[in-house]
Amino acid sequence: MTMLKLLGIIFLCGLLSPSQEVLSGLSCAVSPGAMQKVLSDAILQNGLLQQHVQGLVLPNIMCEGGLLNSPTSITGLHLVQVRLPKLSVVLLPGIGVQLSIAAKLELSGNCLVGLLSELIDILVDVNITANIKCTNFESGTVQVVTEDCLCILGAIRIKLLSGLLSLSVNEIVLKQLTATLPGLLCPVVDIVVNLVNIQLLGTLNEVIPVGTAGTIHYQLASLPFTSGSFLGLDLDGAVKQVGGSIIPHDSSPSALPPLVDKLLVLGLRQSFLNAVLSLLIQIPPQTFTCSPEIFSSAGNLQKAIATLLPTGCSACRGNSPLSIRLTLSGRPLILLEDKRATVELSVLVQVFVRRSDGPILNVLLLKADLSLNVHVSIAGGRLVLGLSLGSTSLSLESSDVGISNISSLRPHCSSLLAETLVPLINGALGIGIPLPNVLGIPLIKVDIQILAGLLVILV
């Protein structure tokens, strides 16, 4: 048994009992097929295994059985190449991952038969199997345990130009390789697994800027866990404003939909998305003249307000144009329901006149509670939310001129907010929410599901 202690592990591991209630911002399930491709790319396609086995030197082999039973010695035997490697993965429920690598190993060395010396090439089939799990997660630290590493040799082919070796030498060489290769290859598996884990951990544990507003720090929240059909990962998503203050978010356990034929299912909890929206939607107060150049219903709004002004209000009848000031009130909240997402947002709408003698006359101070429809898409590894105005509810906060009935203003205020505020919000959201690059699996050809309290991305 070999134990490697790392500062975070990704997926080559499991728990004796899977996590039941992990309160994190994101959860994901990875299919065995996706894991196999990720591992195959990292270990085989990128040449990591070849890099670490090439040049391995084996002990000399001494035997009888050459021409006329002459003494035979094979020296300088070293591994030249890994041919036709294939990698497979089996999930062991509650234990971890079984990793298997089948390949042909090409060995080369010098062969001395009696007094004749020449090069010898050996090609041997090998199958390496190892069970890998992790334990003792604490503050991002786990221990990786590699167990039951087996190295089974199959057919062997020996190439010697003179052809002076007998079949008995083949058997002796195979016996010697069977005794020595496992002790060389299993430590290599440990090294390769370690390097792959460190490499892939970077896809989970990373700090990603969110425009200039702040960052999201993704990291593994607990031990990965395995079932027979997927590997489960829970991630923390710490949302930080510029300056380092964290926007808190509470989470509750959420069940992911089944993988079926998908590679990856990534679930983002509603509370996490709310924290990110608070980071993105930080629009300063907007002040502008109530004119058609700003929004199309400006004239109608002015006329509607004029009809509400009480008679005898001399201060209301000046020539100064109406001005409008929009101020966000409180934090935006996203609501995830079955097949539907909305954002609730409150805005203070101040309609005022700046009089010639200096003071501001507060004609109206309204509170508009908006329900915004959400369109969700994925672009460049980011979650992009597009908003459109669904409904507007108006309430009167105050009026210095005695206006009390504002029911006629709702359609004009809806137009005002749809044409001025909503585009600003969409501009702020346009940079997208950066998502974790889970195990390097690209987010292309995705499906998006909206469930109660959970937004699910399926790849």
The number of distinct helices, counting runs of at least 4 residues, comes to 6
N- to C-terminal separation? 36 Å
Q: Which class do the helix and strand fractions yield?
A: alpha+beta
Task: Give the overall shape.
Answer: rod-shaped
Order of helices and strands: EEHHEEEEEHEEEEEEHEHEEEEHEEE
Spatial extent as radius of gyration: 34 Å
Percent helix, as a range, is 10-25%
Largest sheet: 9 strands, antiparallel
What is the strand tally?
A: 21
Strand content: over 45%
Q: Regions with pLDDT < 50 over 5+ consecutive residues?
A: 1-23
Average pLDDT rating = 87
Features of the shown structure:
single chain, 459 residues, alpha+beta, nine-stranded antiparallel sheet, six-stranded antiparallel sheet, 6 helices, disordered N terminus
How is this structure best summarized?
The chain is of the alpha+beta class and 459 residues long. 21% of the residues lie in helices and 47% in strands.
Question: Could you characterize the architecture of this molecule?
Answer:
The protein has helices at 32-45, 48-53, 167-201, 270-280, 298-308, 410-429, and strands at 2-6, 26-30, 61-64, 71-92, 96-113, 116-138, 141-160, 206-210, 214-220, 225-226, 231-241, 246-247, 264-269, 286-289, 322-337, 340-354, 360-379, 382-398, 433-434, 447-451, 454-458. With 459 residues, it is of the alpha+beta class. Strands 2, 8, 9, 10, 11, 12, 13, 20 and 21 form a nine-stranded antiparallel β-sheet that branches. It has a six-stranded antiparallel β-sheet with strand order 1-7-6-5-4-3.
Describe the protein's topology.
Blueprint: E1 2-6, E2 26-30, H1 32-45, H2 48-53, E3 61-64, E4 71-92, E5 96-113, E6 116-138, E7 141-160, H3 167-201, E8 206-210, E9 214-220, E10 225-226, E11 231-241, E12 246-247, E13 264-269, H4 270-280, E14 286-289, H5 298-308, E15 322-337, E16 340-354, E17 360-379, E18 382-398, H6 410-429, E19 433-434, E20 447-451, E21 454-458
Antiparallel strand pairs: 1-7, 2-11, 2-13, 3-4, 4-5, 5-6, 6-7, 8-9, 9-11, 10-11, 11-12, 13-21, 14-15, 15-16, 16-17, 17-18, 18-19, 20-21
